Amino acid sequence: MTAPRQTEHPIDPQFTQRWSPRAFTGEAIPEATLLGLIEAARWAPSASNIQPWRFIYARRDTPAWTPLFDCLVEFNRGWAVNAAALVLVMSKKTWLPHGKTEPVPNPTHSFDAGAAWMSLALQAHLAGWPAHGMGGFDRDKARLALGVPSDHVLEAMVAIGRQGDKASLPEALQARETPSTRLALAQIAVEGRYSFD
Ligand SMILES: Cc1cc2nc3c(=O)[nH]c(=O)nc-3n(C[C@H](O)[C@H](O)[C@H](O)COP(=O)(O)O)c2cc1C
Known about the structure:
CATH topology of the domain at 28-164: NADH Oxidase
CATH architecture of the domain at 28-164: 3-Layer(aba) Sandwich
Structural class: alpha+beta
Distance between the termini: 32 Å
Bound molecules: flavin mononucleotide
CATH superfamily of the domain at 28-164: NADH Oxidase
CATH class of the domain at 28-164: Alpha Beta
Helix content: 25-40%
Shape: globular
Number of strands: 6
Order of helices and strands: HHEHHEEEHEHEHH
Radius of gyration: 18 Å
């Protein structure tokens, strides 16, 4: 049975209704629909509006699919095989400030790419094509296979698809196919000064 996601304060339901399913139907996603999800990521805030996020996407049954799919760890390949699209989220570590000739480090490149991924995930949920982030992939292999320059971090992969029946998953994953809970607010937010355990 699905445990309800209880909040300690009222928030817009989109935040608790979004979750990361692993059961996908295998339905193909139109490229324009996928680009619509990345469009949401495009409008994320970033330090100095640098927009350090970069995305490489692949739709199932296209030549782009296998090079991305083959970089996933075996566990993720097991369920992401039925996704409609894979998106590699990268962040560029440096930027060229106005009037400078040499790039300088951007200390918030990962933070900003994380904001962009969350925009994508929320839009994906609203669009009925839920997204599931994955840290489990071979970054060296992906960098080589996809030609990612060294000043970019390979942050995460994202599987996107039409949500399917959890019965399609291996038994061990069926039990995990439900919205998860969260730490209590007091465990993650404190007033004034660090006082966590
Ligand atoms: C950066 C990142 C990496 C993740 N890596 C994996 C992964 O490799 N495999 C997987 O099955 N889920 C992965 N997840 C999914 C998380 O386990 C999931 O988001 C978390 O348990 C919270 O659940 P929810 O997204 O359903 O709210 C990842 C999520 C994020 C944001």
